[in-house]
Design brief:
3 domains; alpha+beta; 14 helices; single chain; 484 residues; six-stranded mixed sheet; Homing Intron 3 (I-Ppo) Encoded Endonuclease, Chain A; five-stranded antiparallel sheet; His-Me_finger_sf; HNH nuclease domain-containing protein; 19 strands; HNH_nuc
Length: 484
């Protein structure tokens, strides 16, 4: 339990000897002070620098958990405080600068502290919309570990005139590899959250802990915002609104299209498997306000909106022109150096089979849910062009001789199935970020309307699509695409 005794609080607020050290902690924005059980932990660049701990009515500087720092514990006295301010803190900072925080774990913890600094301590912190109350919150009773716990206080004009009403739990994922790896994977956090939210007693306990920590930090002056006064406290009936769960992807490589696809699939999977979390919490993804770690409510975008924005929608005109020759010169049943005689049966093994014939995934097949598309929540699509409805693989065919596949119209399956939509549209919605009326056409790269595998589909603007099918010379493409 993160709590200190009344005697400890009185020592911190009224003892004149400790005041120079507390002022150093408060004014040095590279330091972060967190409340633990019977002690304060002081962090620098995400690593513990030292602690102030109460033991049997006495107060000590206790050794950091960081192996780089070797000093022993010592009882606090005026001389020890002077040495800590003048010698020990600068010395330990230098050691951590030189030898500490290597690797992704260190980078993630340093990012955590930067988030604290920008939203709690810096000069512009008073204008952000979140206070970070705790980091690396590990509680054996709650059975959870939270990267950051915060309260949301939407800034309105020049001042925050009312206490915070909303709890915000934040999960920080630093770099691509941390998203889906090991015990700390994003999905594992959703598993823990689902279990946590089923126990209201634990949820109320967490809110009580947040109230205590926030109010104590305000009283001690650790949250260094001018608008936070001693009477600006969270009361028992506050934090009543639906809490937020905010995912922060830090230093994620947005140019890695394969990684984006993997993240998209993971987030869709999470959305489908853990509905309780989305029912009980307002799940969002943090984006930066231009640059930096300051957290603003308007830049916390809804989970589903973030998922839909992940996949790259089609080719830019520059990319289209660069790939035009390759797209144009494919040997297809439409054109090419050696026009292929199209045979429908060549593709039946991919898309056309009885509903009981193939029930398991095919080798290397990837599935994506359409739960984010209104009216299609029961559909999922595969990278091989297959479609499921309520987990049943549907037959497909060119039932109106249009040259494109649709879903079996014979009503062999339970539920209301859309027999009018083209299969290629469904595949593009699942893997390419296609939405209705978004201005993009789905193009089959080999002009084979029966081959709806992901690798054969690309999104093109209407102008680009016309250019391909009109055989516009490549030298004229730039002017053609720029025409109104």
């Amino acid at each position: 339990m993160r709590k200190i005794s009344d005697a400890f609080k009185n020592y911190l607020t009224n003892n004149e000897d400790i005041r120079p050290l507390l002022e150093q902690i408060k004014t040095d924005s590279t330091l972060d002070c967190e409340i633990r059980e019977n002690k304060l932990q002081i962090y620098y660049r995400g690593a513990e620098l030292f602690s102030i701990e109460e033991k049997s009515g006495k107060f000590y500087f206790t050794k950091s958990g960081n192996s780089i720092i070797k000093e022993k514990n010592e009882e606090i006295c005026k001389e020890a405080i002077r040495d800590m301010v003048d010698i020990t803190i600068p010395k330990r900072k230098n050691l951590l600068d030189l030898y500490g925080q290597n690797g992704p774990e260190g980078s993630e913890r340093e990012s955590q502290q930067l988030i604290v600094r920008e939203n709690n301590l810096n000069l512009k912190a008073e204008e952000t919309d979140y206070y970070i109350v705790d980091i690396e919150n590990v509680d054996s009773y709650l059975g959870l570990r939270f990267d950051l716990l915060a309260v949301k206080t939407k800034h309105d004009g020049k001042d925050r005139t009312t206490p915070p009403k909303k709890l915000a739990i934040m999960e920080l994922k630093y770099s691509d590899d941390s998203v889906d790896s090991g015990e700390s994977s994003l999905e594992n956090h959703f598993i823990d959250l689902s279990n946590f939210l089923t126990d209201e007693t634990k949820y109320f306990e967490l809110k009580a802990q947040i109230r205590y920590l926030f109010n104590l930090k305000c009283e001690l002056g650790i949250i260094n915002k001018p608008n936070v006064k001693n009477d600006f406290v969270i009361k028992e009936n506050d934090l009543a609104e639906k809490p937020e769960y905010i995912i922060i992807f830090a230093n994620y490589n947005v140019n890695d299209l394969k990684q984006n696809q993997n993240l998209y699939n993971l987030l869709i999977k999470i959305r489908n498997k853990y509905p309780l979390v989305f029912d009980k919490m307002d799940v969002r993804v943090a984006t930066s306000a231009f640059m930096g770690y300051a957290l603003y409510a308007d830049y916390m975008i809804p989970y589903d909106d973030f998922v839909n924005s992940l996949l790259k929608k089609g080719l830019t005109n520059k990319e289209f022109i660069e790939q035009y020759t390759e797209l144009q010169e494919k040997n297809t049943w439409h054109y090419g150096n050696e026009k292929k005689l199209f045979n429908k049966k060549d593709y039946e093994k991919i898309y056309n089979h009885g509903m009981n014939e193939i029930s398991k995934d095919l080798p290397d097949e990837k599935w994506a849910s359409l739960s984010h598309i209104k009216g299609y929540s029961k559909y999922s699509v595969s990278s091989f062009g297959r479609v499921k409805f309520n987990e049943i693989v549907l037959e497909q065919g060119d039932y109106n001789n249009s040259g494109y596949l649709k879903l079996d119209p014979r009503n062999l399956y339970p539920g209301k199935i859309d027999h009018e939509i083209n299969v290629y549209t469904l595949i593009a919605m699942g893997f390419l970020g296609k939405t209705f009326n978004d201005g993009y056409d789905v193009h089959h790269k080999d002009n084979n309307g029966y081959d709806c595998r992901l690798e054969n589909l690309v999104l093109l603007t209407r102008k680009q699509h016309i250019a391909i099918h009109s055989n516009i010379p490549k030298k004229d493409l730039k002017s053609f695409l720029s025409e109104e």
